[in-house]
Design brief:
Chain A is mainly alpha-helical and 282 residues long. Chain A has a single domain, classed as Orthogonal Bundle (ABC transporter involved in vitamin B12 uptake, BtuC), CATH 1.10.3470.10. Chain A is built from 15 helices and no strands.
Amino acid sequence: MNFHDFFIQPFSYEFMRRGLLSVVLLSLSGGLLGCILVLRRLALMGDALSHSLLPGIGLAWLVFGPSTPALFAGALAAGLMTALGSALLSRLTRVKEDAAFGSLFIVFFAAGVALISKLPTRLNLSHFLFGNVLGVADTDLALAAGVSAATVLIFVVFFRGILLESFDPTFHRATGGPGGVVHMGFLALTVLNLVASLQTMGIVLSLGLFLLPAVSAYLWCDHFGRMLLLSVGIAMVCSVAGVLLSYHAGLASGASIVLCLGAVFFGSALLSPRYGLVSRLR
Amino acid sequence: MPASHNILRFLNVTVRYGRTPALEAITADIPCGSSTAIMGPNGAGKSTLLRAILGWHALATGEIRLGDAHPQHLLPRLAYLPQRHTIDWDFPITVRGVVEQGRYPSLKIFRRPSPHDHALVDRALDELGLTELADRQIRMLSGGQQQRVFLARALAQGADIFLLDEPFAGLDLFATEELTHILRAWAAQGRTVLAAVHDLELARHNFTHGVLLNTTLTAAGPIAAVLTPDNIDRAFRHGHCVHDDPLRPARSTEFPR
């Protein structure tokens, strides 16, 4: 197989070009968001949050059909209910925060699974959970582009605020920074990105697209800005590699992307000269 | 040094968490250019007092004045140093990166740091002896050096009133010595330092003034006048931990006769 057959020929199909463009756009915002999730130790919470969006999405689909604003509103409502519900549970009962979150999200997830089994569409559960890069429609692509552009713009404009809120929220608030706004904005942005990647990666696998590039970059960088750039770079390269892998090997698209990202992560964890396994061997 | 001018004044300050009072009717003056230790048992309201200055707690009664103004209007003059354990030392940031954060509050969105900002950062690094370490990741420092990074950030901010929350917690003997030297030099330069301090002997020897409290104010003023055995006994008598009082470790334990 020559270069043309490997890299160019797959993208002679329009659905391949659309799929590729949509994952690359989502890598841009996902790579940025993932860094904040990792640095603020919200990785597991993000995972739980993504699962808990399912009933909101299912319900919105049931009532309004596949309308993007409705899906987003439903997802946001479900996400907020999980976050608030677990905060209330942990405060008002003996249950600790992590257990409350874990219990609540799995109940929400089950409700979502039940709802979607009742949906009057040909889409099945695995579509919502794992997405399909090759089924990206124009509206999905437009949503991915919009969300990605908004995320990048927010990161550029509020870079310092985001850095302070991630590193030292007390200092941020002590100097008059709008800590609460940054925090809530970040949660909303995460939900927005999860919804935007629903079609492409599904709610379960999209978190891999956010987290894995960020943890990989975390193993290499000592500068916040460079970590963001490297994370975005890794996400983009692995998205392209994943789409090619899925095409040539006939694998599920979202899973191929996450597997490529996983390879980079394990490579980094092993080989990073300062923070990887090899640094312990010397 | 004449300490006639009071830079910070607490007038009948009460802060409540729900129904529980954290601070009750605190009235105290902090002289300009003093180094004041805020002391008391665990849960006495030391951190609450510091955060109330920053406007984080709504005051149930009273007011806090900075010079003639409310502190919220003069946030750039105030520098708050967080407790060490709240910082993630693995964060991908260098010493210089942290000190540069001191300039962020005064930078407009889109405005890049000016040569003046860089000069302030360089000067702060230099004053705390961190120039050589500027490109190190913050984990690669000793405890005392880490504390100095945050002091440098406060300097770069251009503040002249420093609020330190338990700055000595987790520091070894050498680093503690180093920090007390820096704080004394600052007070000598007319900077005002307010620190929540656990160790009464450390406070007695290194601070000019003290505020001793246990929800209510026990005493405030020059450190020697505050730390009398009688005052200490009153503040700590019903403390949550007998070992908070290093002078009389077993005094509050009563044995049946």
